[in-house]
Each structure stands twice: as structure tokens, then as C-alpha cells.
Task: inverse folding
């Protein structure tokens, strides 16, 4: 075995025993801005931003789509080639009936039906009962305001969870602000919020029970007392109590009690708020796709569609993300309008029988279709060339115009194109050797002979890449 053969075998064995890892690349695509940046991962793990779009050499590619809401979107990838107020400590309160017996030194006994001959004593007792009823009702209303704050916070967090228009950092920041107003963001603040919610649950249940008991006592009193035996002051108080209680307070209490169905309503609401906050805080708003080294994959087609849990589903969004960079030219077509300076003239016979001319139009609009060729650069303005054909709208001689020149391509998807250059178009010219200044005999019966010839002028065109404008959605 020759020395060269041994060397080749040794190199092959070393490559088999100690394979060289493929180069790692990262493509970061912003889901909201719809732009991509490319990075090369060095041996020490640092990332180096590539100046051009696409990856020129072979390697493993990780696609990371940022500002992507995984609660709302699902995606598939196809390879293509070419706030709270403090409350009293009620943690030991569980039995509403026991608390009711403890209120006011035997208040239940005072709520028993009152006899006719009570006089001012009956009036005073009825007034006290009614004041207690109003105080309890006002406290229930304050607790309902706390519950409304909880419900609003939950709704706002739910909207944030499925937000598809704001960047991920902004969504997380808004979630922190919302939770800070009702629960806090530290663990100790969250534990305090849970304790307060339990206190609110106990207090709310007790108040509803108390209001119902008071109302029943009022009904019992009204049904047994002798209205005729009351003095004028007592009758006025009676009428006021009956009117306010039956027409204002009790209907609202009934509504409150209906909404309070289910135990631990405050605690459950706080837990829903904290769960939503945790989901938003700990979720990485991104989508990842791993592509192993493959020289045939030039682009990735990412199709994103709303998940099955979304009721108001939108259309599928389709993105094409370049993987491998090509050094060749790109071709695209566009359609629009161009404005040509053709130096077109109108010929006529002046009153002195001399052939004269005047400028027909300062410019001529031309409906134009272009083919553009330009490099593969995608960032900034792309420069290239163009060739096109068009139909003039105002020239006296109708025919096809031919255009060629330079193009400036604008937009992330090459949506708008501005072109300048030379245009060849037919315009009328004098025939039979006639020229401006010649005298015509018998001008009344003389028709100026003209013939159309192609002449060169300048143009500027504004056209649009129709496929780019309509191809963003599937």
C-alpha cells in the first residue's frame, strides 16, 4: 500500500471517528412585521448576524417565528424548492347563622313581629331594622364593585391571551399592569389576594343571608302590625320603609343573590385571573421549526391558521421565508401606467397658407406591462432593468409602444415599482417631402399627408406587482 493510499485511508477513518458538525444557522422571522433576519452560530455559541438574506452554505437551520401567539394560531411548514381595597379579617367567619346571632347583642330576637301598642317603641325598632338593612345592602354593593373589578381584569387578560396585533413584550407588560391592580405580581401579593377573596366570599354569603332575614322580619311586622293604631310620624315612616324596601332595595338584592350562585365566587375569580396571568407570563410567544442540512430546500412556506378554539376564525396567513440564498437574477412582472414625452406635433395650414405645427401633448399616458429583472437582495430598494409594452391613450396614431430602462423596486414583497427609460412609439410625420413653412396652393381643398413612424422619447412609469399584492393570503 502506497503512502498516499495510507494517508487517504487515515483521513477517511478520522472523518468517520470524529465527524465535523454541520454549521448551525438561525432564521428569526417577526410574525407582525413580516421580516426575517439571519444568524450564523459560532463554535462558542455566539450568533453573528448575516448581512444578506438567506444562507449561502450548507448547514442546520432553526426557524424561530417571534411575536407569534400560540393561543390563537396553529401553523404548518412546507418545504419548497426553487387593583384591591383592604378588608377586615373575616377568615374565621364561616357560619352565617352564627354570625347573625352575634350581631347587635341578640338582634334576631329584636326582629320578631312587633305588637300594635308599641307606639314610639315600634317606630324606633322599625327604623333601626331599616337602617341595618340599608347598611348591609350598601356593603353588598361595595363587594359587588370589587367583583366587577375582578371580572373586568379577567376579561382584559382573556383578550390579551388571544391578542394577535401587539408584540409579545407589550402583551406581557399589559398583563403585569392588569394583575397589579387586583392581585399583585409577587408571590406574597398573590397569597394576600387569595386570602382577601376568601374573606369576601364569607362576608358576601353572610350579608345576603342577613338581608334575606331582615326582609322576612319586615314582612312579618307589616303583616301583624295595626296601621290604624300608629301615630302620624309612625305612619310616615311606615310608608317610606314600605316604598323603599319593596320598590328599590329588595329587587336589587334578589338580583345580587342570583348572581352570587355558587360558593367561593370571589376566590374562583381570583384564581382564574392568576391562571391567565401565569399562562401569558410563562408562554414563549414564538413558533419553532427545525430544518436539518438540506441543499434542496430554498424556501419554507409557513401557513398559519386560527386554532379550533377560536370562534371568529380568520383566513389562513401564508408566509414564504427564504432559506438558501441564490445569486441569480429575479424576474417579476408589473402592470400600471407610464407617462411618455414623445415630442408629438399637430400639423395644420395657417391662414397665410403656410404649413405650421404645434405641440400636441406635454406627455402621453401609456397603459403598460413590464418584465423586471433584478438581483436577489431583499432589504431596502432593489435596482434592476425592465422591458415592457404598452398602449398609448392620447396619441393620434394608435399602436403598440415599446419601453426599456431602469427600475427601482419598493416594498417587502416588491409591491410597487418605479421605472424610467426610453420609449418607442408611433407619431405622425409629414409626407411627400413637405415640411413646416412650405406654402400650400388652394389650402381649402388640401389635406396634409402624414404617416406614422416610430420615434424615441423618454418615460417614467408607476406600476404594481399584482401577484405580490394578492398573494399574501390563501
Result:
Amino acid at each position: 500500500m502506497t503512502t498516499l493510499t495510507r494517508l487517504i485511508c487515515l483521513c477517511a477513518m478520522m472523518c468517520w471517528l470524529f465527524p465535523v458538525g454541520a454549521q448551525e444557522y438561525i432564521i428569526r422571522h417577526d410574525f407582525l412585521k413580516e421580516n426575517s433576519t439571519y444568524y450564523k452560530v459560532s463554535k462558542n455559541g455566539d450568533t453573528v448576524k448575516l448581512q444578506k438574506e438567506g444562507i449561502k452554505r450548507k448547514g442546520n437551520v432553526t426557524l424561530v417565528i417571534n411575536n407569534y401567539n400560540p393561543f390563537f394560531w396553529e401553523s404548518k411548514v412546507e418545504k419548497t424548492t426553487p387593583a384591591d381595597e383592604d378588608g377586615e379579617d373575616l377568615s374565621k367567619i364561616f357560619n352565617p347563622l352564627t354570625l347573625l346571632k352575634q350581631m347587635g347583642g341578640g338582634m334576631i330576637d329584636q326582629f320578631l313581629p312587633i305588637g300594635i301598642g308599641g307606639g314610639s317603641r315600634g317606630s324606633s325598632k322599625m327604623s333601626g331594622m331599616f337602617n341595618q338593612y340599608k347598611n348591609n345592602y350598601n356593603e353588598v354593593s361595595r363587594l359587588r364593585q370589587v367583583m366587577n373589578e375582578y371580572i373586568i381584569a379577567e376579561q382584559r387578560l382573556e383578550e390579551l391571551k388571544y391578542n394577535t396585533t401587539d408584540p409579545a413584550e407589550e402583551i406581557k407588560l399589559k398583563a403585569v399592569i392588569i394583575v397589579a391592580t387586583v392581585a399583585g405580581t409577587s408571590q406574597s401579593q398573590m397569597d394576600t389576594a387569595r386570602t382577601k377573596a376568601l374573606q369576601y366570599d364569607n362576608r358576601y354569603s353572610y350579608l345576603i343571608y342577613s338581608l334575606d332575614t331582615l326582609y322576612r322580619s319586615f314582612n312579618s311586622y307589616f303583616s301583624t302590625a295595626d296601621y290604624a293604631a300608629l301615630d302620624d310620624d309612625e305612619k310616615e315612616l311606615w310608608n317610606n320603609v314600605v316604598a323603599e324596601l319593596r320598590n328599590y332595595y329588595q329587587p336589587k338584592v334578589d338580583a345580587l343573590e342570583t348572581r352570587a350562585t355558587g360558593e367561593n365566587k370571589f376566590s374562583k375569580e381570583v384564581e382564574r385571573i392568576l391562571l391567565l396571568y401565569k399562562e401569558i407570563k410563562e408562554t414563549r410567544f414564538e413558533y419553532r421549526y427545525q430544518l436539518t442540512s438540506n441543499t434542496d430546500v430554498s424556501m419554507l412556506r409557513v401557513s398559519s391558521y386560527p386554532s379550533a378554539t377560536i370562534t371568529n376564525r380568520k383566513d389562513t396567513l401564508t408566509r414564504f421565508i427564504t432559506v438558501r440564498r441564490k445569486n441569480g437574477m429575479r424576474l417579476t412582472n408589473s402592470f400600471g401606467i407610464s407617462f411618455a414625452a414623445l415630442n408629438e406635433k399637430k400639423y395644420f395650414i395657417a391662414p397665410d397658407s403656410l404649413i405650421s405645427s404645434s405641440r400636441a401633448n406635454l406627455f402621453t399616458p401609456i397603459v403598460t406591462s413590464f418584465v423586471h429583472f433584478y438581483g436577489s437582495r431583499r432589504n431596502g430598494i432593489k435596482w434592476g432593468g425592465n422591458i415592457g409594452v404598452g398602449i398609448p391613450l392620447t396619441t393620434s396614431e394608435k399602436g403598440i409602444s415599446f419601453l426599456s430602462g431602469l427600475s427601482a423596486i419598493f416594498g417587502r414583497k416588491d409591491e410597487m415599482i418605479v421605472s424610467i427609460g426610453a420609449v418607442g412609439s408611433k407619431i405622425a410625420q409629414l409626407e411627400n417631402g413637405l415640411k413646416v413653412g412650405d406654402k400650400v396652393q388652394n389650402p381649402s381643398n388640401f389635406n396634409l399627408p402624414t404617416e406614422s413612424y416610430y420615434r424615441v422619447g423618454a418615460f417614467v412609469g408607476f406600476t404594481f406587482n399584482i401577484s405580490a399584492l394578492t398573494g399574501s393570503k390563501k
Remarks:
- The chain is about 35% helix and 30% strand.
